[in-house]
Amino acid sequence: MPKPGSLSCVLCGRVFEPEGAPYTCPDCGLDGTLDVKLDLESAGRAGFSRESLAACRDESLWRYRAILPVEKEENIPSLRVGWTPLYESRALASRYGVKSVYVKDDGRNPTASLKDRASAVGVAKALDAGQSAIACASTGNAASSLSGFSAVAGLESYIFVPERAPEAKVTQLLVYGARVLLVKGDYADAFNLATAAIDRFGWYNRNCAINPYLVEGKKTCALEIAEQLGWDVPDRVFISVGDGCCIGGLYKGFADLLELGFIERVPKLVGVQAEGSRPIADAFAAGAARIVPGREDTLADSIAVGAPRNWAKALRAVRGTGGTMVTVTDEEILSAIRELARTTGVFGEPAGVTGFAGFRKMAENGALSPDERVAFVVTGNGLKDAKSARRAVGAPLAVAPDIDELIPLLSRFN
Ligand SMILES: *Cc1c(COP(=O)(O)O)cnc(C)c1O
Question: Is 270 contained in some domain?
């Protein structure tokens, strides 16, 4: 396993040694999130290659452990995470006029969202650091994920979620035995309270936008997309954006693969936000160097983030790959839930299908070319928020247990 290398500030480039490094750059404050530098060359020398992966039988993200910053093998939690399916949808490709469409179903992770990739690494890092308690603030999924991984690792977890978090996600926390604080306020309030408590009590910080190692976990989504496509990466990858860690993770994953020589180019990354919570899309459109915090007005709770914490990595991911930012309405998100499920069999939560909604919008606007291969990530499972999904579909027909009543009703399905 690699020794974690130095860390560098995404804004000013200041370098820190891993021993005793701060979570974020003291010169740039909370906006100055850090990048983890790994010694990829020595991973290559030690035998990590496309061929070694082809022979690897580990069907989890730990197949990439040679380029993940975890020190002790025994600290890897046993819950299986990653290596989620990548489906090709010919139906979507022909409907939207592109060459190929690939659907990465990250709702298939153990607690049903992409956040499990970060929690797996975060919990291993907390154990590496000899910590016994870990904490995070979350719109919901990072919390349910952390609580699941803490349970299996025997860590105490302190979780701060805004009071609007969907019931299924809060239920997951309680079931896993987390110490749950439902914060009276929005995500920004939950984040600030968690940060103050972490400072005060010295818990390990699993906030993805603060702890640089968590983006390393999220990068495995990009590693898998590339490997599952035989290292012939798509032209574009769409993903929903809240804080910006997931898209920052995709960028880091593709950048690592390019540096390793496993791929020849990096896909254009497209970040998709909800119309009612779009500070990163606005900054991108304005060509601004920084974001201006805004509203959190969308039913897609996982991306209802008015004050995104990892905006610098998100903007770099989009600008650095020739990608773009797209926004979609809540109506478009609801119809995307329906269409994706009915076309591919993949049921996503609202933020889970937002990447698909952004792809659909760009295709409909004629912004994609017919020879493009595109992928989008479904970041969370639809059962996480059944209430929103029910808004996207009608009510079922009620019928007496009587065949004569059934027959006339059947015509209503047409
Ligand atoms: C957290 C989350 C996102 C957004 O990820 P960020 O790293 O906050 O940008 C998108 N979809 C789902 C389902 C999530 O849980």
Answer: yes
The closest-lying atom of ligand 1 relative to the alpha carbon of residue 314 is 9
Instruction: Yes or no: say if 86 and 229 are a contact pair by the CB < 8 Å rule.
Output: yes
Cα 54 versus chain centre, distance: 25
Ligand 1: centre distance to CA 138 (Å)? 10
The range of the structural domain enclosing residue 357 comes to 86-112+214-393
Would the CB of 32 count as within 6 Å of ligand 1?
no
CATH of the domain at 264: 3.40.50.1100
- pLDDT tens, 105-125? 999 999 999 999 999 999 999
What's the DSSP call for residue 380? Answer: B
Tell me the pLDDT band of 2, cut-offs 50, 70 and 90: low
Q: Whose CA is nearest to atom 7 of ligand 1?
A: 245
Q: How many domains does the chain have?
A: 1
Give pTM, 2 decimals: 0.96
Q: How far is 218 from 21, CA to CA, in rounded Å? A: 21
- Give the mutation target among 173, 278, 302, 383 for probing the ligand 1 site: most ligand atoms within 8 A of CB: 302
pLDDT (tens digit per residue) in 27-72: 999 899 999 999 999 999 999 999 999 999 999 999 999 999 998 9
Q: Is residue 234 part of a domain?
A: yes
